[in-house]
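So, can you check this one?
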Amino acid sequence: MFPLPDLLGLEFKTIQAMVKIYCKAFHNTDNVIGKECTECRDFLIYANEKLDRCPYGQAKPTCNNCPIHCYKPQQREQARRIMRYAGPRMLLKHPILAIRHLRAEKRAVPSNIPEHASNRHKRKHRIDIKQQ
């Protein structure tokens, strides 16, 4: 998985917390750190990749407010199931993350996509500079 800075990292941390709540309830895992079931681990890897490549970068709106739907239909449905179950439970298990996520949903969606704002682009650009 890719390291995600600032707001992208916070969004991934929120997704990770939701997946752990969901996985523990539906996949009979003990949920030791890093011990999600294979299906949930694959979803987290997929979500991390999509956040890393988000063209909005740090200005990213929450996924349900985003005009670009980058998840494939199967993963989008999986995310919807996870968030529908874990979302309300986040207030009890991770209240700060839940409140931050609710506040992020109120942020305005940028009217245009900034050029080269994705974390992936910035990471690759840093590597290119170091190699020169």
Summary: The first helix runs from residue 6 to 26. The mean pLDDT is 86. Residues 6-131 form one domain. DSSP finds five helices and no strands in the chain.
